[in-house]
Request: fold
Amino acid sequence: MTGVALGFVPAPLVVPLDRILPSRKVPAGLATSRKFRQIRASIQEIGLIEPLSVAAMDAGTGQHLLLDGHVRLVVLRDLGQEDAPCLVATDDEAYTYNNRINRLSTIQEHYMIRRAIDRGVSPERLASALSVDVSHIAKKVNLLDGICPEAVELFKDRQFSAELGRVIRKMKPTRQVECAELMISANNLTVAYAEALLVATSASALVDGMRPRKVSGVTPEQMARMEREMANLQGQYRLVEQSYGQDVLNLVLARGYLAKLLENAKVAKYLKQQQPEMLEQFAAIVEATALE
Reply:
């Protein structure tokens, strides 16, 4: 069994910043961006967490080509640092470094912040490190309060505003799950959409002590109709969800059959002469890329 070759030297190497050569220009206005301020605040508060990625030293110039960490390099220079820990890559292929990033979901951020606070990090220090207001940290900490586990499971891989929890927790667990499914199916996890779902929620589906929100210009009859339409939409969504896999399979099989059929010159000629509209529809199905 052959071993897997490492992409970098395991032990970090401390390299003077004047020996690190950027491989690309940083965008104009970087110093005023939110990302820059967050990285600067984090490095200033707790230091550099992720080392820079550099290529091996060039024998002629004595410099290391920077593969990843251009913003961090600018921040370190801005803070007056003279050197930085670097991971020396065994190749000079920058494509492999952070070009495809899985962003942390909102719930993952919640767990990380809760863990940091449980370990003694103050909310004020977290806010300073992330360059956000302390109230934002508080919202992240309390994100899942009052949210049922089933709804949390649906939201776990999504990114959304911390304000969403404030709206969802006003509903009972069953309604929370219904709204989560609707928001995900619509690919709309905004607070405004959640507020609209809350308005359309009946009093029986709200937590104890909550009253249905009154909307100016909407009569009780219109609200009742909205609730009926919402219930109908939820039913249709469940029906589609149950049959979606089989429907897609049938479409893929039908597409393959039509492709074979149209490859027959005689069949294609007959359809062109006798049923041109049908041939056009068949061709559109065969050329569809959504099923690939």
Summary: Strands lie at 13-16, 20-22, 52-54, 64-68, 83-88. Residues 103-143 form one domain. The mean pLDDT is 83. The longest helix spans residues 220-263.
